[in-house]
Structures are given as C-alpha cells and as structure tokens.
Design goal:
The protein has six helices and eleven strands. Strands 1, 2, 3, 4, 5, 6, 7 and 8 form an eight-stranded mixed beta sheet that branches. Strands 9-11-10 form a three-stranded antiparallel beta sheet. Helix 1 crosses helix 6 and helix 5 packs across helix 6.
C-alpha cells in the first residue's frame, strides 16, 4: 500500500498541474537533418499540434520519426507527434505524463508506442531585449539527471506497465531563449520564455519494461530503505526520492514494510 504522505503529494501535485505552453517553432541545425517542409504528413494535417510547438519538441519529433517516417499523424481519433517507417508511434513529452494517460493507453492496444522525454543535462539561458538584441548568455547551475523522469511520471505512475510501450529518456543540452518584455512570470521578474532548442545530443536511456525500472532501486532484494536512504544512495533531493518511491510502489517493484519513527520503511521486491 502506498504511503498516505506520497498519495497526498501526488494528489496535490496533480491539482496544481497546468498544461505546458508550447512556443512558436524555430528551425535549428539539429532538426535540419530531416527537411521539415518535405516531411510526410498523414491525412494532410500539418497544422495540428504545431502552432505553439517549441523548437526542442520539433527537433525531437523529426529525429525520432525518421527520414522516411511521418509527423502529426492520425491513429484512430488521436493525433500523434510521429510514426516511424516501421509503424511505431512517437509521442514527445517535455512535461508531465499526466495528459498522456488515456491517449497512450488507447494507442497501445493496437500499436507500438514510444514516449520520448528529454532530460536536460546542461541548459544555457539567452536573454534578449524586445528588439531581439542579445543581452546576456549564461549557464544554468541546475543539471538534469535521469531521476528527473519521476517529476513527470508521478502523474501517471502505472503508465510503464502498459504493453507495447517504451519510454526513452533523451539526454541532451538545451538553450532557453528569453525576452525581457515585462510580460513574463513574476518568478522571472517579467521575463518571457520564448523558446527552447536542442543544442547538443549526449545519449539516451530506453526503458522497455517494468524490470528496467529496477535500476532506480539501488538495493538488494528485500533490503529495507526509507525516502532518506534512497535520496542519499542516489544523490538526489528527498522530494524527488519520494516521487520515485511512489511510482515504484505503484509499479509493484517495491512495497511498504513498516515504520521507523515517523518515516515509512520500504523494501525492494
């Protein structure tokens, strides 16, 4: 049984979740491998899902659909980001997996599906004025890890249990373009986020089945652990460790095994 604390976290997070706003596409060198105007478009629906698409999303969509694949393709009543020439459906998801739960469940009944989730290892931030003059460029101190997957997966913890589904973590560097126009979030002091684009490809991690998620439990079978233990072992923050445990318990890879003071104890199955 999952921890009430974790369930409260998930419920609270889901209530606060807002759909990510995609930005107007800007072609980058990374996406130029496949000439976008010449790409195959299924049922002639090139405008669906692309009007506010970020350059990062666009680059990954074309990269994974392949030279001979299709983008913005229909499968039943759903529009997918792409389809490879082997028939595999591609969904690029840069944010929470929550919006994909029902869609992917339906698609997996008759198709092989791959969710591509970018993990930004290193991010650079470019700040422009309203006349498009570059004001500054800096490196973000935050570095991504594959554990960041659980920030997205906590909203759909049972998704990896679906047959015909693969989740691929694209390990990349990205550049974020911002404009100091006074119209952005108060957290950024009015600076607007305009676009994100892929600046470097490192590698990828493919999770094909539930057993592949065992790598996120660095313990022996039946070994007990707490949120704090996992956080220390994985060198991540306790909040992220809590999300990971919530997902792994839901997947049946771990279970609660008592309590130590105020901390719940878990063990690897």
């Amino acid at each position: 049984m999952a921890s009430p604390r974790i369930n409260t976290l998930a419920a609270s997070a889901i209530r606060k979740e807002k759909p990510a706003q995609k930005q107007k596409p800007i072609q980058t060198q990374k996406s130029a491998k496949k000439k976008e105007p010449d790409a195959k478009q299924s049922n002639k629906i090139p405008s669906i899902g692309t009007r506010k698409e970020s350059s990062l999303h666009r680059s990954l969509k074309f990269r994974y659909s392949g030279q001979d694949g299709e983008t913005e393709t229909l499968s039943g009543s759903y529009v997918c980001d792409g389809r490879t020439d082997m028939g595999e459906l591609i969904e690029v998801q840069t944010g929470s997996f929550g919006p994909l739960k029902e869609k992917v469940k339906a698609l997996c009944q008759k198709n092989k599906v791959r969710i591509v989730h970018p993990i930004i290892i290193q991010k650079h931030i470019e700040l422009y004025d309203e006349s498009k003059n570059l004001l500054s460029r800096r490196k973000s101190p935050k570095k991504g890890k594959i554990w960041d997957l659980f920030n997205a997966l906590v909203y759909a913890p049972c998704l990896p249990l679906l047959k015909n589904l693969k989740i691929e973590l694209a390990l990349i560097d990205a550049t974020e373009k911002r404009v100091d126009d006074g119209k952005g979030s108060w957290r950024r002091k009015g600076v607007s986020l305009i676009d994100r684009y892929l600046s470097k490809w490192h590698n990828s991690v493919i999770l094909k089945s539930p057993k592949d998620y065992g790598q996120f439990l660095p313990f022996e079978k039946n070994e007990q652990f707490t949120v704090r233990t996992l956080a220390e072992r994985a060198e991540i923050k306790p909040d992220l460790a809590r999300k990971a445990i919530y997902v792994l318990v839901k997947m049946g890879l771990a279970e609660r095994d008592g309590k130590q003071g105020r901390a719940f104890i878990y063990k690897k199955k």
